[in-house]
Specification:
The chain is α/β, with parallel strands linked by helices and about 230 residues long. The chain has helices at about 25-40, 50-60, 75-85, 100-110, 125-135, 145-155, 165-175, 180-190, 195-205, 225; strands at about 20-25, 45-50, 65-70, 90-95, 115-120. It is built from ten helices and five strands; from the N terminus they run βαβαβαβαβαααααα.
Length: about 230
């Protein structure tokens, strides 16, 4: 099923075949989507039912687009999308979600997804068109959506809870809020991985969270307020 990655400039060629990776923990759903896409001229680069396996496979297979389910037994498609920004920045991501709610949309956008599509029973035309557009490099978001979502996170926010964070933790949080991975944060702040991991864990504990993905719906002041 694995085929060589198409050159990026081949996106302009009529003969280009989009290569898709499917992440969904339900095998019948994966099989159905795979058949649907292959019948419509796509190539399936790979598939998985686990977030951990997808994180390993996608950078190796280098598909044009990863279609990621929003909820998985060992994580979320949004978390996988965020990690791929560091490990496979050339791979675009499309989130399949059951939740048409502001926080779900916001999380997908801030994770760097090209778009999000609601799971619907029935006509698959919208899904296929969305996958084709995202694979070709088009954003499925209306102009200005990313900017408005980022601004909404900061508007009318109270920074009183920042008092519990050390200066180093505030620095780390500023980059967490931008969606950077631990490794990227370490590079920005010139900190070893173990210090970054310890700071991330401490920040989450102080804010009452178990996973960093839970930070997304929380209003966080702009980075300059955290860094100064």
């Amino acid at each position: 099923m694995d085929t060589p990655a198409a050159p990026r400039d081949s996106l302009r060629s009529p003969a280009w075949t989009p290569r898709i990776f499917i992440l969904n923990d339900h095998e019948p759903v994966r099989r159905g989507l795979s058949d649907l896409l292959e019948n419509d001229g796509f190539a399936i680069a790979g598939e998985s039912g686990s977030a951990a396996e997808a994180r390993h496979l996608i950078p190796l297979l280098e598909p044009d687009l990863a279609v990621l389910d929003d909820r998985l037994p060992d994580g979320t498609g949004i978390e996988v999308c965020r990690d791929l920004r560091a490990t496979a920045p050339g791979v675009r991501c499309l989130i399949l979600t059951s939740w048409d709610e502001p926080h779900a949309v916001r999380a997908a956008v801030l994770a760097g997804a090209s778009g999000y599509v609601l799971k619907q029973v029935g006509d698959n035309t919208q899904l296929v068109n969305a996958i084709r557009s995202a694979a070709a490099g088009s954003s499925l978001l209306r102009p200005g959506v990313r900017e408005r979502i980022a601004e909404s996170l900061y508007a009318a926010s109270s920074a009183s809870w920042l008092d519990s964070l050390t200066e180093k933790e505030r620095n780390v949080l500023a980059f967490m809020a931008r969606g950077l991975t631990n490794r990227q944060i370490g590079q920005e702040l010139m900190l070893p991985d173990e210090q970054v991991s310890a700071c991330v864990s401490s920040v989450l504990q102080k804010l009452g969270f178990r996973r960093r993905s839970q930070l997304i719906p929380v209003p966080i002041p702009p980075a300059w307020e955290l860094l100064h």
